[in-house]
Amino acid sequence: MRPSALKAIGISFLAIALTTPNYSCKTQKKSAQSAPTTDPSLTSITLDTVNVKADPEPPVYRASEPMVNDILHTSLDVRFDWSKSYLYGKANITIKPHFYPVKSVKLDARGFEIKEVSLVKGNTKSPLNYKYDGNVIDITLDKQYTRNENYQLFIDYTSKPDELEKGGSDAISNDKGLYFINPLGKEKNKPQQIWTQGETQSNSAWFPTNDRPNEKMTNEIYMTVDKKFATLSNGTLQSQIENADGTRTDHWKMEQPHAPYLVMMAVGEYSIIKDSWRGKKVEYYVEPKYAPHAKAIFGNTPEMLEFYSKQLGIEYPWDKYDQVVVRDYVSGAMENTTATVHGEFVQRTDRELLDNTNEDIIAHELFHQWFGDLVTTESWANLPLNESFATYGEYLWEEYKYGRDAADHHNQQGLAAYLAESRGKQVNMIRFDYESREDMFDSHSYAKGGRILHMLRKTIGDDAFFESLKLYLSRHKFKPVEIHELRLAFEEVTGQDLNWFFNQWFFDSGHPQLTIKTNYADSTKEAIVSIEQMQDLTKTPLYRLPVKVAVYNNSGTPETHEIVITKKQEEFRFKASEKPALINVDAEKMLLATKKEQKSKEEWAFMYNNAPLYLDRYEAIENLAKDASSEISSQVITKALNDKYWNIRALAIKNIKDLAKGPKKEEIKAALIKLAGKDEKSAVRAAAVSALSKSYTDSTLMDVYKAALNDRSYTVIGEGLSAISSKNPSEAMKIAKDLEKEENSTIQISIANLYAVNGTDAENSFFLKHAAEMSGFEKYLLIQAYGRYLMTRSDEIVLSGLPALEDVARNSAAWWMRLSGIQAMSAINGKYSEQENELKAAVEDLKKTKPGSTELAEKTARLEKVSDMKARIKELIDAIKKAETDKNLTKIYGM
Questions:
Q1: 351 neighbors 714 (Cβ within 8 angstroms)
Q2: Interatomic CA distance for residues 413 and 393, integer angstroms
Q3: pTM score, two decimals?
Q4: Torsion of the alpha carbons at 671, 676, 679 and 682, rounded to the nearest 10
Q5: pLDDT (tens digit, 9 = 90+) per residue, 822-859?
Q6: Per-residue model confidence as pLDDT tens digits over 510-542
Q7: Dist CA 423 CA 434 (whole Å)
Q8: CB atoms inside a 10 Å sphere around CB 558
């Protein structure tokens, strides 16, 4: 699974807005599904509120569920009632005792209406006694069955997902399992769809099963739908039969065993774009509008299948691979076996793909087909066996397709996400004491886990790493696993005892915090490295860290040494005939750690010019930027404007401000103009336009900004509009009116930010229209802008906007989105409170100085109106807060 984009990157870029409803801050122009910020320092605050090791109670051990009975096969016959959002189901379930004889069986079935439970023998059905508590069907069998006997149950039931008690988490915002989207067809611009989401244990909301990750079964589904709809499920499509009543019954069959949470259905009016790999069907289900762009969105899938199959030594194990896009999805994406579900954000036009491809998500879910589907975590406590690998699958694809710089940039973002979360939450990777299984879907299981696997790869070497994965997958295919089975595979291949690695990284919390000092002893001709582990050893282990140290001579040639850090403080010495130009500790840049290093500007400059990796250059620029006006820093940062990798160029642009005031300002301006118009990466072009508008006042640059409006990239257009707005707001308003026709959220957010500052009452309709249409983080940004806009508008416009804010605050699926509505209303209420105080003071003064005056009467009338507005908004806010149940929000609200 890929959680919502906010959770996947630590939700940290919401930090400022979530900690205080401050509407004076500038809103980031970034989509919810866009790549995380290129500046890891922006991920400095996390929303997780768990205190580090603060639980005063003994932990509850969350063991895997006992396997009393094994489900061998589930056959479902389902029909749908769109008017009620019901599923009418008939389930035939083949079961056998796991080991011990049984006389009863329990099946998870949440919120069903049970019509019949029978034992099936041949063509005969015999009713069975059962008890049902709304969550579990406890069925008494006709006799005692042994592990050598199978039995088959028939259950006729109705699933009512919309009548279930609402649940969910940060990662998966709703847990009702089965979703009817626009079921009555009343919502304009939204298709009718049905789809499912099984992880963690939600598929039992639409079919009876043993809803546990350590169960494995085959399955088939007969779906009866209106002829206009396409269907999708696991496995292959066996048949399609048209019925006399205008419906069609599609039969999907999954012939290889997988976990119940990976069973899926999707129904909707889709264009199905066909592709293939090694003779297997590869298909993309998209809304018809995006059919021309489907190959651009998903077209690298066959190449990914080939790469992963060769890299792992295990060919893609299933009969086909499909991807489907659904509306109002409750997470980011889900790796259902052979049929991945994606949220609607992946649907982009060719033009929108210039700014963001979401290819990392596509790779993540595909890698799950091996790690999570073929071999499945035995319990949610072992979730990193699914999610850490899928996250590292993103790195492997980036490395193969786009090179080491791109892959290391991706890893850098993962580290930033984990470190942001770690400031409020540090837990074991494998944890049996979670409060809720949904808590496992965090930046530990994803980002930290991916970095841990990268360290393991670098520790034992590529050949051993991938040979170990091949052994692990082949040995445990179609089975559930624990972390020890991964370790044992690596130990069998390498011949090493790797308990030390798994214990410190998977069974303990935290990370190394290193202080690194380097020196040279001329008397002994030795390069000296001093390293101290600064982490709190009462909470975090003393780490064993194998790393490489590259010692560079003045000609730029490195001599690399392998060391193992094992002590709190230790010193390493290496022979060197001259003082090194650079001592580069962790030369592979593999460590999951925070590092404080003492280097001179000359050493950082040498590192940029000579060390080979992306992170070498990034760290050099980041440190030189602390004194960007110095000559050596200026030279390197200016040079980095032409770096081979785009994010280094973007980083250099970000740190160019001081240089734009110095003697090189014209040289810098010329370089930025060139980047704004010609750089191959839209993010760099946009950053250059922004830097020009902030650093230079030249009227001649207006031509550059207007040229940006003709860029193919919407991000660049948005920055062009912002740049023009900073120089000529009235002209920007005219341009914005022309741009309103663009159906692109980046442009719409840029316009919203412009209208928030310069808009009139006429622009209210723009906000109301897009508040009703937008979703995800784009909607969050829009609501922030709308709040700022309403703070400058008349009472009538405020009243017209309150229902939209109330809808966001009450009905949004994600808690952070609901919070945005409250924040906007609170800021507006604060404005009225300030006005009330000012008017009260003015009225009191006028009573003394101008009693009976027209001015006093007007001020008094206005005071009454303002007080009424304040009271109405406060009453609304209090009612919404009182009804809130999410723990994140109740804590923030102090409820």
A1: yes
A2: 15
A3: 0.91
A4: 150
A5: 999 999 999 999 999 999 999 999 999 999 999 999 99
A6: 999 999 999 999 999 999 999 999 999 999 999
A7: 18
A8: 20
